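Issue 218. Parser rejects a valid record. Input:
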Amino acid sequence: MSRSTSLAQTVLHRAETRGHADHGWLNAWHSFSFANWHNPERLHFGALRVLNDDTIAPGKGFGTHPHDNMEIVTIVTEGALMHKDSMGNEGVIKAGDVQVMSAGTGIQHSEFNPDPEHRTKLFQIWLFPRERGLTPRYEQITLAPEDRVNKFQQIVSPDPEDAGTWIHQDAWFQLGKFDDGRTERYAIKRAGNGVYAMVVSGSAEIHGQPLSARDAIGVSAVAELEIKTGPEGAELLLIDVPMEFN
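Output the parser choked on:
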């Protein structure tokens, strides 16, 4: 059965309209319906199902829990995250690292902030996979921050031979950190894809829409995005995903 998005060509998600859960040890903002926050108008953007903006308190974390049939990308932006899973992977993901898990037929894992004094901040992103029932896999890469200064750095793609890491979906992730007053153009990688663009910090005008920190815009049915950075510059996360998928 084919699922397709019912979203219009452009959707605007202001930072303050996201779902919010403060558990004390975890302060989480949800761009799409997640856990106890349900918004029927924000179930997904194409194959993009979850974009959580999490802050984990010192020494705290998620106990062992299961996932299946989901591509999970974790981008640590501050601090570190201790990971352990049922595939035998164990280690620390540090700020600047990107972790990918293809949950496939099923995995269990735990995630903790190993630092007793400092918080951990991260984005955790889930995408529906191209196929269900795949063999689970894990990968972790370390990014060079200089490779995204005033340009886009590809961190995820569908191609194991391409830059960054890869997932089982026709999706591309980009990070960029741009000075003020720049105009950039991002070409959508695949016909039928849309782009969900979040301003991580600073400000920008994307597809004609002014955006502040943690605001996001989803744009589909275009060949490229025009991006103009604001007076503070801008750090951007772009998620280029199929709008229709199995």
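Fixed in the parser; the record now loads. The chain has one domain: 3-245.
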